[in-house]
Amino acid sequence: MNTDSKTLPSSAPAPSRKHRFHDEILTQHARRNFIVFLLTVTSALAYLVWVIWHIDYTFWYVGTPYIFAEVICFISMLLWGEMMMRRREHDPAGLPMQHSLPAVDVIITCCGESLR
Predict the structure, then answer these.
(1) 3-class DSSP state for residue 10?
(2) Is the pTM of this model over 0.70?
(3) Which residues contact 20 (CB under 8 A, 6 or more apart)?
């Protein structure tokens, strides 16, 4: 990284700021996505309460596994939402190269070419 005073004015931000890919586009949608996620969680909670309240417990062997499956789905949705809301920051320089890249052969086929 070049930090020469001729190329980097003192008032400029540091070039090593971590950012996400297309950060300027993603931040515009982050609030809307969070609101949609909160509405989804609210409706899922209301559904779980409704199911628990209206299930016929005389057939507990059917209702209990169903409620258990719904709770697992709800927890999975919460974990997925938390994972999607987390900022994933990357170094602007990209990933460091561990070793040299392997050689790659590119074969371009053409229509009607011979088999040999």
Answers:
(1) coil
(2) no
(3) 26, 87, 88, 89, 90
